[in-house]
Design brief:
- Helices cover 25% and strands 34% of the residues.
- A 7-stranded mixed beta sheet has the order 4-3-2-5-6-12-11, sandwiched between helices.
């Protein structure tokens, strides 16, 4: 492993990881950070880097919004990766996230662009597992694999809540990473090492450990981060827990909520995983 990665080896945090399949250095297949514990302001750059591979979905979701119209519901909006560009294109957006600091960043970004954008964005702080909506929408988004951050036992209730607030002919669009079972069995532990792009004078390196648990159909990713400035180095450990999506179970839950899958798009990530985008319509 290159010497540059040495400062962030997990062993430096006094917690040696279990044996894995070695270190991968490939930025386009990094595991995502949809649901993270111990979020701090310094992790903003890491969040942005991990969401980077999802950035192309803005074009697809905007295209869908042009066919459905607004208002748009952005579930798990974070700091406005989708909500603010949607507002810039003239769509009224309700952004929902459980992280107050992320919503503050979203609102600040919208205000900096101008009142014509800020006036189109409404924020709503809520956990998706306890979501209660009041408005009606033409398009709802669970983008950036946010559906994998919702426990399977709570997912049907979320889908019913969203579907009940979609206008006639409205759509729910969501994406997730689909894992092939043989690949998970053969390699349940995976490791990535990468540098976080930053433009504030801080040098940040990360080792990410991804562990799949097949009995519970879940995964945990631990990010061991070292941020080095001119005078000191800060080490931070972040974790995110997600759920492995069973496509057949998800399809049944969507149907039970009164939605039918109108379109499905697959993008191969590697020989064992692919990204799946679903567009679901209300049953008229």
């Amino acid at each position: 492993m290159p010497a540059a990665f040495a400062p962030v080896l997990p062993s430096r945090y006094d917690r040696e990881p279990a044996p894995g399949a070695g270190i991968r250095i490939k930025s386009d297949t990094l595991p995502g950070l949809e649901s993270v514990c111990a979020v701090d302001e310094g992790s903003v750059w890491l969040h942005d880097a991990l969401l980077g591979p999802h950035s192309a979905d803005i074009v697809r979701y905007l295209g869908l919004a042009r066919s459905t119209g607004g208002p748009v519901l952005d579930l798990g909006s974070g700091a406005g990766r989708l909500a603010v560009p949607f507002a810039r294109h003239g769509f009224a957006v309700e952004a929902v996230d459980r992280d107050a600091s992320a919503l503050e960043r979203l609102e600040g970004w919208a205000r900096r662009i101008g009142p014509h954008v800020a006036g189109l964005v409404v924020t709503h702080r809520a956990d998706l597992t306890e979501l209660r909506l009041e408005g009606s929408y033409r398009l709802a988004l669970l983008a950036g694999a946010m559906v994998t951050a919702v426990p399977p036992a709570r997912r049907p209730e979320l889908l019913r809540e969203v579907a009940s607030h979609l206008e006639t002919g409205g759509a729910l669009a969501l994406d997730y990473t689909a894992h092939q079972l043989p690949g998970l069995i053969a390699e349940p532990r995976r490791t990535w090492a990468f540098q976080v792009p930053r433009f504030d004078g801080i040098d940040e390196w990360v080792v990410a450990r991804q562990v799949f648990d097949l009995p519970s159909m879940s995964e945990r990713i631990t990010y061991y981060t070292a941020r080095t400035g001119k005078l000191s180095t800060e080490r931070v450990v972040l974790t995110t827990d997600k759920w492995i999506v069973d496509p057949e179970r998800l399809a049944a839950e969507l149907h039970s909520a009164g939605l039918h899958i109108e379109g499905r798009r697959r993008h191969r990530i590697d020989d064992r995983t692919e990204s799946v985008l679903l567009v679901c319509r209300t049953d008229d």
